[in-house]
Design a protein that fits this description.
10 helices; globular; two-stranded antiparallel sheet; alpha/beta; Carbamate kinase; binds Isopentenyl phosphate; 12 strands
Length: 260
């Protein structure tokens, strides 16, 4: 059985500084994945390789004017470079892997990802090569182009490959009742269902054109089931991902009960 892992943009990049790759953290996380011995598929976020220019040029609204076009090309270039850096760390850790650029393999329609050909992903897996997909700018049948987040890709892959567990690696310990970066008495939830989610207030400090923790939790609730945990875990805490993959109890938030 496979584990679907998303390495969030907040962990693999410095989201506040354009094109800043956290190579040490990514290298360590890749070694943790390797050490777990688990069969995985990896998705990663765009972080500052995507969100900075996407916000500046309003890419999420779709095609509005020709001035956006060079920015689209630049973002596509930047996130492909980021993906190569991630794959380079995976290969160095002993995990044969290949970058599968979302926008070059798939299209969207009104921001919905059309993932009707899973064959390349499946065939790479059959060869023992880990496919690595990522948040990207994707052509859109209705809007010209649109942003496809790593979370959207996760949902499609979860439908297609029925993973035993889905893991979101982020820069926070899990979901809090308040913003832990600004509120000292913020409390971490071990488990979250859709009732709790409705109460949680979410604010986020940096630009993220595809939504913050709340959107992620909603996606996680859609992906969990009675026999599949969907977990948010902190990748900056050394060894935590490894312990989670080994089935140990760690500090994290687990989505339960699906979306209501
Ligand atoms: O970092 C967003 O993907 P995410 C992709 O997974 C772009 O939200 C290009 C901003």
């Amino acid at each position: 059985m496979m584990i679907l892992i998303k390495l969030g943009g907040s962990v693999i990049t410095d989201k506040t500084r354009y094109r800043t790759f956290n190579s040490e953290v990514v290298g360590r996380l890749c070694h943790e994945i390797k050490e777990s011995g688990k069969d995985v598929v990896i998705v990663h976020g765009a972080g500052s390789f995507g969100h900075v220019l996407a916000k500046e040029h309003d890419i999420n609204s779709g095609f509005k004017n020709r001035e956006q076009v060079p920015a689209v090309a630049q973002i596509c270039y930047d996130v492909r470079e980021l993906s190569s850096m991630v794959v380079s760390e995976l290969i160095s850790a002993g995990i044969p892997s290949v970058s599968v650029p979302t926008g070059s393999c798939f299209v969207m329609d009104n921001r919905e990802l059309i993932f009707d050909n899973g064959e390349p992903v499946r065939r790479f897996r059959d060869l023992g090569i880990v496919p690595v997909l990522f948040g990207d700018v994707v052509t859109d049948r209705s809007l010209g182009f649109a942003i496809c987040s790593g979370d959207q890709i996760m949902e499609k892959l979860a439908e297609l490959f029925d993973p035993e567990m889905v893991v979101f690696v982020s820069d926070i310990d899990g979901l809090y009742d308040k913003n832990p970066k600004t509120e000292r008495d913020a409390m971490l939830y071990d488990e979250v269902d859709s009732g709790i989610l409705k109460e949680v207030s979410t604010k986020h400090d940096v630009d993220d054109v595809t939504g913050g923790v709340r959107a992620k939790m909603e996606a996680m609730l859609r992906m969990c089931s009675d026999n599949r945990d969907c977990v948010l875990v902190n990748g900056n805490a050394e060894g935590r991902l490894l312990d989670l993959l080994r089935g140990e109890k760690v500090v994290c938030t687990t989505a339960k009960g699906g979306i209501l």
